[in-house]
Amino acid sequence: MFRNFLWQVMAILCLVPATAGAQFTGDPHDHPLGDDFVESGSRLRFQLGDRWQRTATNGSGLGQGDPTTLTWGIVPDGTQIVAFVSNEVDGRSDLNSYLDEKFGDRSAWLPLFEGVFDRWSELSGLSYVYEARDDGRPIQEANSHPGVLGVRADIRIAGHVVGDGPLLAYSHFPDRGDIVFDTGDGFDVDPGALLFRNLVAHEHGHGLGLYHTISDDSRALMQPFVSPAFDGPQFDDILGVQRNYGDALEKKGGNDSLAKAHFLGALSAQQKLSIGTDAFLTRVFPEQTDFVSIDDDSDIDVYAFEVTSPQNVSLWLRPMGPTYLEGPQQGTQTVLNTSALNDLALELLDSSGSVIGLSTSGEIGEEERIEDVLLMPGHRYFARITGADNAAQMYRLDVGDLTVAELGDFDANGFLDVTDIEALSDAVRSESNDLRFDVNGDQLVNADDRFVWVNDLKKTYFGDSNLDGEFNSSDLVIGFSAGEFEDDIPLNSTWATGDWNGDLEFGTGDLVLAFQADGFEKGRRPDASVQSVPEPKVPFAWMVLLASWRIRRQMVRTVRKS
Hints:
Jelly Rolls
């Protein structure tokens, strides 16, 4: 049953024992990180191994940060699998029939794999091509049967009964990347197949060179368990894959020269062009794709833009990334500030390639600015970004009128939305000193800023799940429908699913906070001024009962309509 499967996958992935705090033993992914994987003297801290150096499409000679194309496919049932992990014996793949039984037929489960590879692709310099052909050569650790176009894929996916134990699947590391599922583990498919997709994405992460990572205050796909608390690669995973393969703009020739510059657009007066706006939180949502980075001290990123009229233009380069605890499996966690991994530099060039603006004064982790340069229409201008350190660094670049952003609009998309309140909550939890989040101007980043953002800037109430300006039964329906109220899954809730106090959980404390403001079913907030939190005019328990009754009525109406 699904509940049993959930317990299994929450406790273990690969060969992690189900006993809390037990030492990890026998895991083919649990290798100590030697000098081959952690570069001495660099600021590279995430858990990273070797990358692909040869693929069927690219041939040989691939190196760190190079965009890469990988082919993938499902081996025919009956393909031999040579034993690799403890308790495994040689066997024949039965993955096709196994997945047909679980999902119905191939048309139901093959798109799940496609979606996983598509997600890795839109977050990095990786491209994927489905290879329908497979010549049935054995799956084995020794890479004696590498990918060949029209013959077999680089990443071959198989499965058989591996043996007793908690194994769900395993993957070989580059230049192999084959994935083997344990088809002896039965499970029920959850809605959206989230756990299955995260399992596939995790195993393929190993096939890209990513090792297990552990963190007590954040979540990552490459932690040694599979979780339904998020969907796909998270910030730490994206940082690692961009270190190995570059960001998504590296594909199709990259953007490392004026001739190949990525065009940001035409800039009108009092407007701004931005890129790299999503690199705020440790948690990443499926709709977020705007992550760009310098992957080492030899990488160059160039962006082009034009102006529609004579205007003074400013450029603002910010190293981006959250701060969180991170460490290797079985190792010690330390604080990792991902906004201070590489010291970035910013140049402004004219159409001839001459430098007309330069900023290098910021230390590592600090911004670079080029202020108020008069630019003329009819010309193309370029922003060039480089890094001084051999480490990957996410960044954000803004070009234009830098006074445009509204207070509290941290991603500068023109809206105060859920991404902004999540970014602020993350900053408060991590005790950040980034004064962008100090929306009340007291030189501190704390819970007071969340109250100002909700009450004063957004002009709504705690409890407004959909941020439509009202707190009503619809918001509670949204929150409770996610099924995260006082569940046993840690750190899995967001503002939209009931985490209104910013602790990544939906619990009684969130309801108390929401109802204390006395805004339930009162419409839009009449006065956004910051005041002390009022006591509810009726007992809190009666408020919850009233809300529950209204939720039930709304759900009944919804069922009847359907």
